[in-house]
User: Which sequence fits this backbone?
């Protein structure tokens, strides 16, 4: 995977020589003509930059005559846009007959000027990357070891599928299609490692489909190919969060589920 | 009725003419011609579409359209699909059902997307609408099989029950037996999202047997393979079918039973399901493959050779959903076999793995774009991309209407040149003049937004993540994209300036979502104060935004136009900025 070096600065982005002023919004001038999308020339970044600079040194907007005052905004001659006399909690509901249903094709009205943007070279306060940096330490940007929340943009139930053991054998025949009941969108995996004494390769088992020791043991027996007759010669043990190894049957199911980290089948002696 | 104009028609004639106009957009246009057309149209509109349930209140809708029979409502923003909208944000359907229950006993159809539906709502639907026919819940949550039981028991005329991608609290599979034995009108049933280990197969079989008009049946994973034959045997008229788990011990009798039953389904056009599929049982569906137009293999964890074999049997395929196990080689076969392909979605089998686990690259997408002349809609997850590939794709397939590309690692550059992918996406918007939906990914500077603002004149929905350098990027989009309705942005360095300079544009759009960007609380307040027809919602789980300095960026921002004013059902972590120039607490 190739990544751009962190220090590389894309000149366009650092542009501070534009001035946004009041007035009508003009469409930007036409960009690079179609011919330039030629495989031979697109790689020439200098050419593009030169062409692009013209486009970006707008003033984008020309000053219009009467647009200074915010209260002059006209939306379909409705005079209520500037009146705030109706203000107060919750009574800004428009009478339905006043406002026509949304006009999808309405041209964007005179640009509503809420901010005069001037060329301030040392505007550190406004530098978005600075602000982001200050406040990006919050934990909500990460998600418990899985990296970014919601990325890649794959829906929850699809994520679940991919934890599936690809050989899809009979043991996982009846997995529920959803991870949780109402509301919950758990993103943590419910799979734990299982080892059997004497077998070098560990397997993985989905705990969320099991609700009792019986069910769990049945699955494990099938998984490791232990016949019913041989069942008695194995014991199920588990390692808890403190790192101790315990016998599974010694604790209630709920405790077991909450504290276990991994499982191991050992041969019982005597 | 006074007719001053020589060319005006009696109401009945106009109504008759309007009855041929079904599309929502056209109906809205018709209603704005003049006052009398507005009046006539509103009385005869039968299907109402509300793209944002908070844009208008139920009472307003009911007052304007006194006789509608069908309503479609959408709730949460799209990014809720990816866990970016905290639980409890909103989107409750109950107030709508409650208002309609009183006013509209003859309501027939309810379609909801990304809304919270409770058992109480479902029970109210079951009780209130005697002629209820269609319930489609897409990506909804909040209800259990108890609510479904109420629908099953009471809705004697139910034709369609479609639960696609819902989160349902699966209390019991026996809800199916609540359909009375006398009930036979089912035409479409989609229960693919249900879990339920103990599925009530006999109730399902009996239901299928007596509903002879059943055209669509999508089962859930719990239905084992050996039960499918019995179900299909009683429904050879099915047009769309979704299997349950597609695995079992390999037994010749089960196989031949299955193959036989599939052969008798002469109308089958669409297949889905295939959880846990094992290749041995796949050939059972070969008899129907030549007629298939839609195939959803997005849960099928089989490898490329088996996928290739399957796909080669389906020359009439128009729509394919598949995992990236298909690989570039499989997509090349697809390109040569399926010349009618219109829509392709390739999902990642291992989205969180650091390294590629399959050989699927940009080449697969190029192959399909070159080979499939009717391809217009693509959703593609991959791990590398180049400008060269994107330009090739754009030039060969200018008929794209939906182009969604997700390069899994954020800010991935062109792997050949190490440059940003601006030019590639620029080519997409320049050549694909009818592009309505676009999702960007990879390393992108403000330049790509310049291209988008200049060329993407028909673009209605744009999704952006980890892109851009400055407010200029956002400004290009807001000022240039004339048809833009929905804009969703995450993790981009866009701040106050572009937003405030283009405030009026926001009223022409349905909604704007910005999370992990650089919009300050002060800017949100200003917008809220000055734009009374916008609801500006600040979503922040860190606590009240005024407990931090005003120039601090808000965590998440959701702005949408509304004539219903601020809503009253907000949870503690959502604040609406309004004209009171202070915080409104819910």
Assistant:
């Amino acid at each position: 995977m190739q990544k751009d070096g962190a220090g590389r600065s894309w000149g366009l982005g650092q542009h501070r020589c534009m001035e946004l002023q009041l007035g009508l919004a003009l469409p930007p001038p036409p960009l690079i003509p179609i011919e330039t999308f030629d495989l031979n020339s697109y790689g020439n970044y200098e050419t593009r930059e030169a062409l692009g600079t013209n486009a970006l040194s707008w003033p984008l907007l020309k000053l219009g005559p009467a647009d200074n005052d915010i209260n002059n905004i006209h939306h379909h001659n409705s005079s209520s846009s500037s009146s705030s006399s109706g203000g107060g909690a919750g009574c800004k509901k428009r009478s339905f007959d006043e406002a026509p249903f949304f006009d999808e094709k309405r041209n964007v009205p005179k640009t509503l000027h809420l901010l005069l943007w001037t060329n301030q070279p040392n505007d550190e306060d406004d530098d978005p990357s600075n602000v982001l940096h200050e406040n990006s330490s919050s934990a909500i940007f990460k998600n418990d070891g899985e990296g970014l929340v919601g990325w890649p943009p794959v829906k929850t139930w699809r994520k679940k599928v991919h934890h599936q053991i690809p050989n899809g054998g009979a043991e996982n025949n009846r997995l529920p299609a959803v991870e949780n009941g109402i509301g919950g969108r758990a993103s943590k995996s419910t799979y734990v490692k299982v080892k059997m004494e004497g077998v070098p390769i560990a397997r993985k088992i989905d705990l969320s489909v099991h609700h009792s020791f019986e069910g769990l043991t049945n699955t494990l027996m099938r998984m490791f190919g232990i016949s019913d007759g041989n069942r008695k010669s194995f014991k199920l043990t588990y390692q808890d969060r403190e790192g101790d190894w315990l016998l599974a049957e010694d604790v209630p199911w709920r405790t077991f589920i909450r504290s276990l980290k991994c499982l191991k089948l050992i041969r019982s002696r005597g | 009725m006074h007719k001053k104009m020589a060319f005006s028609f009696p109401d009945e004639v106009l109504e008759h003419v309007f009855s041929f106009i079904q599309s929502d957009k056209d109906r809205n246009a018709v209603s704005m011609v003049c006052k009398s057309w507005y009046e006539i149209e509103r009385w005869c509109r039968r299907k109402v579409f509300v793209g944002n349930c908070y844009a208008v209140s139920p009472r307003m809708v009911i007052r304007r359209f006194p006789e509608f029979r069908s309503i479609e409502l959408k709730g949460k923003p799209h990014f809720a699909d990816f866990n970016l909208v905290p639980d409890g944000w909103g989107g409750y359907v109950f107030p709508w059902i409650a208002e309609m229950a009183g006013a509209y006993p003859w309501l027939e159809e309810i379609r909801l997307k990304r809304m919270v539906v409770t058992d109480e709502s479902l029970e109210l639907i079951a009780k209130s609408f005697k002629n209820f026919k269609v319930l489609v819940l897409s990506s909804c949550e909040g209800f259990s099989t108890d609510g479904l039981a109420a629908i099953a028991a009471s809705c004697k005329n139910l034709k369609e029950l479609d639960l696609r991608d819902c989160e349902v609290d699966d209390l019991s599979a026996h809800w199916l037996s609540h359909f009375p034995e006398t009930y036979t009108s089912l035409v479409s049933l989609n229960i693919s999202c249900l879990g339920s280990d103990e599925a009530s197969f006999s109730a399902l079989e009996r239901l299928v047997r007596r509903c002879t008009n059943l055209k669509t049946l999508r089962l859930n994973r719990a239905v084992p393979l050996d039960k499918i034959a019995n179900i299909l045997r009683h429904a050879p008229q099915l047009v769309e079918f979704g299997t349950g788990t597609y695995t079992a011990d390999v037994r010749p009798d089960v196989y031949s039973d299955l193959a036989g039953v599939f052969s008798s389904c002469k109308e089958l056009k669409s297949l889905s399901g295939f959880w846990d599929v094992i290749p041995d049982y796949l050939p059972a569906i070969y008899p129907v493959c030549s007629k298939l137009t839609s195939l959803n293999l997005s849960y099928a964890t089989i490898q490329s050779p088996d996928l290739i074999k399957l796909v080669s049997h389906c020359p009439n395929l128009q729509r394919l959903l598949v995992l990236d196990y298909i690989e570039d080689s499989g997509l090349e076969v697809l390109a040569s076999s399926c010349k009618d392909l219109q829509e392709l979605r390739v999902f990642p089998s291992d989205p969180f793995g650091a390294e590629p686990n399959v050989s699927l690259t940009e080449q697969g997408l190029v192959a399909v774009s070159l080979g499939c002349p009717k391809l217009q809609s693509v959703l593609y997850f991959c791990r590398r991309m180049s400008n060269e590939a994107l330009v090739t794709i754009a030039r060969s397939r200018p008929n794209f209407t939906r182009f969604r590309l997700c390069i899994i690692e954020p800010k991935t550059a062109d792997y050949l040149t190490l440059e940003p992918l601006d030019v590639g996406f620029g080519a997409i918007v320049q050549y694909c003049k009818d592009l309505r939906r676009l999702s960007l990914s990879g390393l992108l500077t403000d330049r790509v937004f310049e291209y988008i603002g200049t060329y993407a004149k028909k673009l209605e929905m744009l999704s952006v993540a980890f892109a851009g350098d400055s407010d200029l990027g956002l400004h290009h989009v807001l000022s240039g994209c004339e048809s833009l309705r929905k804009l969703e942005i995450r993790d981009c360095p866009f701040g106050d300036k572009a937003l405030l300079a283009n405030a009026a544009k926001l009223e022409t759009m349905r909604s704007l979502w910005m999370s992990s960007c650089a919009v300050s609380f002060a800017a949100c307040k200003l917008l809220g104060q000055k734009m009374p027809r916008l609801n500006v919602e600040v979503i922040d789980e860190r606590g009240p935004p005024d407990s931090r300095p005003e120039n601090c960026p808000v965590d998440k921002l959701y702005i949408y136009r509304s004539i219903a004013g601020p809503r009253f059902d907000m949870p503690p972590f959502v604040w609406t900025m309004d004209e009171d120039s202070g915080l409104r607490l819910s």
Observations:
- The two ends of chain A are 56 Å apart (CA to CA).
